Amino acid sequence: MGDTNFFAGVVQILEAPKQHYINSSFTVTVARAAIPLKYGKIQLIHLNFWGFLSKNSYKRNDYILVEGYLSLRDELPRSIFRPASKQVTITALKVRPFFLYLNYDFRHV
Amino acid sequence: MAFFDKSVIIRGIYYGIVKIFFETMARIFGYPNNPGMPIDPKRTFFGSSEEEFRANLPVRYNRWPPVQRPHSFTEMIFGHMPKPLALPKQFYTTKDEGFYNFYIVNFSNIFFLPDFVSRFIQLRFGICTDTRAIEGLRELLFISLVVFTQMLSFRIALTWFLTINPYAFPWYYFSWSIDWAEELFTGFMPSLLGLNIGAPLMFALIGVIADSLNNLVLTMPYLPSEADRLKVSFKGKIRHVLVFHYLPTLWYQYPIPNHLREFWYYKRPDILEYMKAMYAGLDINFSPDFA
Hints:
The complex is a heterodimer of chains A (109) and B (291). Chain A has 109 residues and is mainly beta. Helices cover 0% and strands 53% of the residues of chain A. Chain A contains no helices and six strands. In chain A, strand 2 and strand 3 form a beta hairpin. Chain A is globular and about 45 Å long. With 291 residues, chain B is an alpha+beta fold. In chain B, the strands form three sheets. A four-stranded antiparallel sheet of chain B has the order 3-4-8-7. In chain B, strands 1-2 form a two-stranded antiparallel sheet. In chain B, strands 5-6 form a two-stranded parallel ribbon. The radius of gyration of chain B is 26 Å and the shape is extended.
């Protein structure tokens, strides 16, 4: 630890992760996830898996243990109040499964 | 936009003067051979800095007055009603992303409401997917600004007719409705070389506000910070777009508005079924409250 940008915790993947190809051998997987804070309250984050970590098979609703670093991104061209409109992105360095969602409904996917 | 185009020339002249001044000063310290203190490298993102990315975005120009295409006889005779030229939102539906996704073309001069304002509007006023109320407010503000500009120019035109006394009976109602603003601006900006620059300044300010209203993007039911920056190929050209997709953040964090859930239940059961299947693992209520 020792870094304010360090993050380690359980997150829940909210939407099906999407794999993007930077070139023929390099991929990045992007997924939206939530940090469960307390009952009924969540913080939405963007998860980035680079390189070999991107070749995982985590699906929607899986809980995973993530160790990585935080960054705040400002995707918008201009905003009156800049700090209020930033996205939280976590780039994963280590990923482990925590609780995988098994009652997965395949009818609609 | 016309005000900005004019100001660019003045800015260029000013920059030139400042550049000459600094170069003359630096030449005393041996400027071309001695470049001075090193500057911190700019923050980079995928090879190009944020500033570079924003500088390369196209600027959205709104032609004013817009192209006249009358659709009725009243429009043919009296001309168009002024309307804000909002940035079009392209809605789309996919199996993965859901039903309420949309994207907009990214320009460097569009702007959004701050997150907390957008959240406040959505939670307190129950405005979710249907933003007609806010768009109506924007249109009202825009039309009133345009009408005020017309009144102002008419007030200035009145001073050319010496036979008309703007402080006599039929006209003084009109003068009263305008002069307060001119007095306000004259208070801020005293006349320069005997010339009152309050009125031109007011025109410029109203123009800037009206143009900003054109470029304001409403992102309901999403929050502005949820934008995803993407590149798409459109007619052989690469365009930068901002995509708002998946389930909106507010629907995760707060209950979905009941009228929307009722709408799904009664009119669009396919959306309800999709939401229930797609977000089964989460603690979100998609069914309406039967009070």
